[in-house]
Design goal:
Layout (H helix, E strand, L loop, with lengths): L4 H7 L3 H11 L8 E9 L2 E3 L5 E3 L2 E7 L2 E10 L8 H18 L15 E7 L32 E4 L5 H5 L4 H10 L3 H14 L6 H19 L11 H10 L1 H48 L1 H11 L5 H13 L3 H25 L2
Parallel strand pairs: 5-6, 6-7
Antiparallel strand pairs: 1-4, 2-3, 4-5
Helix pairs in contact: 1-7, 5-6, 6-8, 9-10, 9-11, 10-12, 11-12
Length: 356
């Protein structure tokens, strides 16, 4: 699939796109107090204390009364849902704050040096609804009584493009809403309507760069993703794309329907494979629980059951089956089981963070 990331990053590097995203899709009263004339892009590449570079998606700041409000926009365009997105955002926000501290860009009233407020946003354009927790605390296992007060907390705002109906988006004179309509479209007619609207909204000479960014995204990402088997002429403006669509509307309709059927079959196969994998893992859990029950009794089996639910790798179950024979008593077994679950959880989280 054609990668949407560069096109989206280019689009949301324009202040008009960020303004419309906030006005149209952040339902908070303080949005009315922002001075959008002060929108300013912030560098999104950081170097941590180990000299490792992290490149983030888009960061903006804007004046909120006398202070700066930082808008951290993480653009997430994968078709799958990342379960540890809140943990990933926590890492990125820490890098942003460390950069502000090092560069002495701290504000605060009455001479106090304070970190600025941040709005973390995940903009998601996958077809399936987002199911990952939006709160970091929900990813953390409950601890002893009293420890909850020290649990880290971070919540991000999820904007799921597919959650909006086309009629709702069409009623908005909003550039972000137009982008969402294009992403959600399943036939050519809404695309034509959006192209006509964009040509009208972006006709001013000072909007030439934003207009061109839409053309580039449509040509290099949207069309190639929707119609990978088609060859397109060099399209340089919105009107050329609209005319081409009008001339080839029948071809488009046929290909889009075929693509929809293919995607449906592919999703069905993926769901079947995932279901088979989960059934296999459940079988491994039941087998290991029976062995635990025979070796150490019912109480130890009950203690083991919840920890086993956190393990998703068949190879780990095979290792644990061998360890169960070698452990001298139930305490040694429970310690080994906990260590295996913690190790695999840490590896999964590290992999998700490093892959960004």
């Amino acid at each position: 699939m054609t990668d949407h990331d560069p096109g989206y990053k280019r689009l949301f590097s324009h202040p008009e796109m960020i303004r419309d995203l906030l006005i149209g899709f952040v339902r908070e009263p303080w949005i009315a107090d922002l001075d959008f004339n002060t929108l300013e892009k912030y560098p999104g590449e950081f170097t941590d204390d180990r000299l490792r570079q992290r490149r983030n998606d888009v960061i903006w700041r804007v004046r909120w009364g006398p202070d700066w409000l930082y808008l951290y926009v993480l653009l997430e365009f994968q078709s799958g849902v990342h379960p540890f997105m809140a943990a990933r955002l926590s890492t990125y926000l820490d890098l942003l704050y460390q950069d502000l501290i090092r560069s002495r860009q701290l504000g605060g009233r009455r001479g106090q040096r304070r970190l600025p407020p941040v709005l973390p946003i995940v903009l998601y354009n996958g077809r399936r609804r987002w199911t990952a927790p939006t709160e970091l605390a929900d990813l953390i296992e409950p601890g002893p009584t009293g420890l909850d007060a020290y649990r880290p907390r971070l919540r991000y705002l999820l904007i799921d493009e597919s959650a909006y109906r086309d009629a709702e988006l069409a009623a908005m004179r909003n550039l972000a809403a137009a982008l969402f309509r294009l992403e959600n479209s399943r036939d050519p007619e809404p695309v034509r309507a959006v192209l006509i609207a964009l040509a009208e909204w972006l006709k001013a000479p000072e909007q030439i760069e934003l207009r061109h960014s839409f053309v580039v995204w449509l040509r290099e990402a949207f069309l190639k993703t929707r119609l990978p088997a088609s060859h397109f002429p060099e399209l340089n403006n919105l009107e050329e794309i609209r005319i081409m669509l009008s001339e080839r509307v029948l071809d488009w309709t046929v290909q889009w329907k075929q693509q929809g059927r293919q995607e449906g079959r592919q999703e069905g196969r993926q769901e079947g494979l995932q279901q088979g994998l989960q059934q296999g893992l459940q079988g491994e859990r039941r087998l290991l629980l029976r062995q635990i029950r025979r070796r150490f009794g019912e109480a130890t089996a009950l203690q083991s059951a919840l920890t086993l639910e956190r393990i998703e790798q068949q190879a780990v179950f095979e290792e644990l089956g061998e360890d169960l024979v070698d452990c001298a008593d139930e305490s040694a077994w429970l310690a080994r089981l906990q260590a295996a679950a913690d190790e695999k959880g840490a590896e999964a989280l590290s992999s998700l963070l490093d892959n960004r």
